[in-house]
Amino acid sequence: MTDLLAIFYPWIKSIHIISVISWMAGLFYLPRLFVHHSESVKLSGETHDLFCMMEKKLFKVIMTPAMISTWIFGLLLVFTPGIVDWSNVWPWVKAACVICMTGFHEWLGGQLKRFSFGTKILEGRQYRIMNEVPTFLMILIVVSVVVKF
To answer: Closest Cα partner for 76 from 14, 143, 24?
Structure first.
């Protein structure tokens, strides 16, 4: 099995990077949709339904499959011999950040349900602030992987 992982390493890494880009695009965009939804749209009516449909499709059709793919191909990279040295700090930082990013993804899913039910949504400013979470985590992940501290 490890021989196959080594042989397919460039493909696995490529698919992992593509998955991460897709997931991050959604993690950046969905909170922005929430900002506009909370500030400009009443919690019922045709425009509300349109926003809910767009948010739901982004989350279920793009973000969640991209997150799953990121995890699968990331774990395949972890199990590829010679790729990760767990005696360093960087893989632990990356792992913690990816777990936090997954938690943020799930939090967004919870917010999506609140919008669809029309209850307990946050203000646009709060969604703007939360939109910085994936940016911060992405910076930590990229620096840890590239610098390998």
So the answer is: 14
Q: Residue 149 pLDDT > 90, yes or no?
A: no
Task: Please choose, from the candidates 127, 105, 108, the residue with its C-alpha nearest in 3D space to the C-alpha of residue 41.
Answer: 127
Contact, 120 vs 114, CB < 8 A?
yes
Read off the pLDDT of residues 63-122 as tens digits, 9 standing for 90 and up. 999 999 999 999 999 999 999 999 999 999 999 999 999 999 999 999 999 999 988 789
DSSP 88: S
pTM greater than the 0.90 cutoff: yes
Which candidate, 127, 16, 39, places its Cα nearest to that of 47? 39
Residue type, 128: R
As a whole number of Å, the end-to-end CA separation of the chain is 29
Cα 95 to its chain centre, rounded Å, is 13
Q: CA 41, CA 10: separation in Å to the nearest integer? A: 45
